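stuck on whats below:

***
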Amino acid sequence: MENKQESGEDKPYGIDKDFAHPKAVELIPEEFFWDCVDEAAPFGSDEGDTALGEYRDWRQNNPNQSLLECLIWVIEDVGEMDFQKYNSKMLNRKKIAAQIDDDDFDDQQFIYTLDLSVITTGFGQLVDEGTIDAEAIPVVELAIDRQLIWSELVEWEEYHTNLKVLKDKLQKI
């Protein structure tokens, strides 16, 4: 089954289930995933929409590169950090809570936007190509795990619930 992207038709801006790879639609039929305006959806916020657009631009310019290369670029650009520091040490609940409470730390940028950009980039590949590169999955999972902690601490229940669904889907991929 050919999708509209493979047949050469114009790609839409943003997330569009009608243009998605059939495997993505099969793996993630949940409507929240495809919502372009729900802030609790991966592609529904400005940050998620921007990350999807950036991934697509990157992929167009790097058709043979691994998704991991894109994730390294995202982490170093959006997170302003060395990729090697994006690791399981970031999952310390007390540290995340302290970052949220620290007026000098921009958790909106360096936790929410960074992690959402990683998540959206990984799932963007799924939407467009029907897969997520195996070596990128642990990085996307790390982002989801940190977002699960962050969303619980800031009491964003709907987003937290959606993240649990994404983590389950990622493990099945």
Q: What stands out?
A: The chain has one domain: 17-35+43-172. The chain has a mean pLDDT of 92.
